[in-house]
Each structure stands twice: as C-alpha cells, then as structure tokens.
Amino acid sequence: MIPFLFRAFHIFRAFVVKKRRKAGSENQKYQFQIKNVLNMQIATTHKNTDFDALASTVAATVLYPGTIPVLPRTLNPNIKAFLSIHKDIFNIYTSDEIDMNEVERLIVVDVNRWDRLDGMDALKQKKGVEVILWDHHLLKGDIQANRICHEEMGANITLMVRQLRKQKTPLTPMQATLFLIGLYEDTGNLRFPSTKSEDAYAAAFLLERNADLSILNSFLRQPYGEKQKDVLFEMLKNATKVAINGYVVGFNRVDIDGHVGNLSVVVQMYKEINNLDAAFGIFTNKDQSRCMVIGRSSVESLNIATIMRSLGGGGHPGAGSAMLKSANPDAVEKMITELIEGNQQASVQISDLMSFPVMSVTSGTKMKEVAMMLREKGCTGLPVVDEGKLVGMISRRDFRKVRKESALNAPVKAFMSTDVMTIAPGKSPMQAARLMVKYDIGRLPVVENGNIIGIITRSDAMTYFYDLLPG
Description:
Blueprint: H1 2-23, E1 40-44, H2 51-63, E2 68-71, H3 77-90, E3 93-94, E4 103-109, H4 121-125, E5 130-135, E6 147-150, H5 156-167, H6 173-187, H7 197-208, H8 213-220, H9 226-237, E7 242-244, E8 247-256, H10 263-273, E9 278-285, E10 290-297, H11 304-310, E11 314-316, E12 319-325, H12 329-341, H13 350-353, H14 367-377, E13 381-386, E14 389-395, H15 429-439, E15 443-448, E16 451-457, H16 458-465
Parallel strand pairs: 1-2, 1-4, 2-3, 4-5, 5-6, 8-9
Antiparallel strand pairs: 7-8, 9-10, 10-12, 11-12, 13-14, 15-16
C-alpha cells in the first residue's frame, strides 16, 4: 500500500508542476505539499549543496525505500546545472513542499549541524521524530541522532556505498554515476590528502555498476571564465606570503562586483601558483554587507574545516568556506591568523607528541657516563641542563670529537653543542619536522617559560606523519 501511495503522489506532483508552469505568474503563490503519507520519511543535506551531498541524499532514498529527497534552496551552480537535466529522475523536493507535521523520520547526510540545514527547524523541535545521521566530517555537530554512521572518510557517499554493497542493493547506471561524481568531487579525483583507501574501493565498485565517466567529466569540469580570470589577476597583483606557526599562508582580499561563481577554483589556483601551504580568499561586495571566506590547504595538520567552523561555516581538512554578514576583512584575517597561531582546537600540537619527563645530564657529567646512558637507554642524544635551564645538547655525533680515551673523563661541556634549537609546546609537528630537516638535528627540546618540559625526536615526528603508532 505504501509504495503505491508514493507512486501516486509522485505522479500527482508531476501533474501539479506541469499545471503550475502552464498557469504562469497567476499561480506562482500556490504551493503543493505532500500530506497524509503514513510514516513519512525525508532525507536532506546542507545548504550550498555539492555533489557529495546530493549523491548522499539520493543514496538515502535507495537505502531507505520510500524516502523523499529534500534539498535546500541554495545549491552550488554545478548542482543546479545537473538537476536542470536530471531533476525528474530523482524526484527532488524542497522543504516548502513537505508538510513537516507528517514527518516521522529524518535522514541527515553529509552534515551534522542543524544550522546548516534548510527549513528543518520544525523537526528540530518536534518530539518523536527519528533522526538518522550519515556524516564523514571529523568534527562532531549538535544533531543528536537515534542512529549514527559518523566516520572520517574522503567522501560521505563512500560510507553509504559501503552499506549498499553490504546489502547487495542494485543500482541504476544513473545512480552509480551520480554517486561517483560526488565521490570524485569531495576527494579531488582521489588526490586530496583526506582520501582513504575505501574511497578508491567505492569508486571501483561504482565503475563496475556502469558509472558514466563522460557525464562525470562534464559536470566536474568547473567553469573558469573571464570573471574568474579577473579575480585571479587581482589576487596575484596583491599576493603576499606570511609565516604562521610554521606554515606559509597567503591572504587576499578582493571586492567583487556582482555575482562571480567558482571562486573556490580561483583560490586553489592562487595557492598553487604561489606555492602556499594554505590560501584564504576574503571576498566582499561593494556595500560590505556580505563577506565570503574560502580556504584551501595542502597540509593535513592545518585543518581548514576547523577554521571555517569557528567562522560559522564548514568544510573538510583541505577545503572549506564561510559566509559572514557585515564583517570587517581585517578582523576576519586576524581571526584566521589567531586560529592558525593557536594551531586550532582539533589539531595535534608538539605537546601531544613530546616525551616527558626529560632525561638530562649536567654540564659537569663525564663523557664516559653519558656514553653509558645513551647505550642503556637506546637514545641518540640528551639535553644538558644546569639549574633547570637548558645550556646545551650532547649526542652520539659529538663523540666523534673524542680523539683519546682519556678524553672520556672530560666533562660534557667540553664537547656539547651550545647553539640549541628548541620549540614551544603549542607549535605544530610540521614546524618541528621543518626545523629538523633545515638544521639536520634529530631532536628538539620543548621549552616553555625558559624551562625544558619535554623533547620531540625525529622518530616522534615521523611516527605522527606516517601514522605508525601501534594499535
């Protein structure tokens, strides 16, 4: 009975849409709402919907038969182009076409915050609504769901494809194509650092299900026209680089006259041309009433999503954006700078990786005693500390200076290195690695307020970057 009702409503909706188009402006105020559907369930996603969000919404209708796909009113331009051709295939609705009083189940995909949904406030307050959440973003939001699939992945659709494979659910070539477009867009054709091996497996599975790469290439080829060229030229004219917490970052503020699409492409090109770790485009319109911030990063430890979330937006570790109202561009740049200087709330800091307490020796310790300590502990060097202050570093390499056996009775201060490079506990692993490479050193004492509180070694940094931690 239920499948019949949904087929009937889809047929009726098509009839109403056709009548509305014929009626013209006189009937534009008329709104058709789906009502009286037993146990109505809808699937929705975030504003400024991208392909991963659209694909995940459609996937929800496959995983949960009878689900109505509901999209926000604000869609990315390439989504609008795609739906202008394929809208009838996927039977897409908007929130004002749904009677929220009848909704019993809400499936949220590719987002975990209520404020990023469109027209769902009534369901946030409504009691008894079952909420199912599918999200691949690392940061948790405020949507309290009854059932959750929350796992870091390159694309959200990968999580849903996993379940479709498990259930052996058949897919049409058009569904497989849409899912692959979403997967490729969010992983940069499997090139973004956030891409996981399972994303590649999911892509192979969808290709086996006859996903059409020619359609994919048509819609993922983002337009780059005269307006975008003008903006990029303006950004390159005023290009600046700043060093923040070990990262090379570029900020650029541009006044935009009218609508310019695909600014994210411009920011990405700006970052690549200037060889930046991260780039931020701050775009304002003439009356300064709106400010769009777009960020791109090629460094995993500099999380764009965390920064944009602090500005009220969102995104992924390598890409994100935020829309601000009446924001001062100077204040926006300062805020982003402070977030990077603080290494962001969710990023790993040196204090998370360092070893402590620190084994050290005094400058008066005999070299033969140091040799025994290095051999017993299996380490390659030790900080030299007098009265709580770091005065030098002694390493196995320094023993090359020992020419005679009698010199082993000499104190450490005769052979230690006094020009010691240190690092603060709030700095990033990337900065530690850069210092080690630049100065060819195997360890960095971690110093705070003049006192040594830990030590980070080359192996600690490599363990972090290559994820070699046990378990």
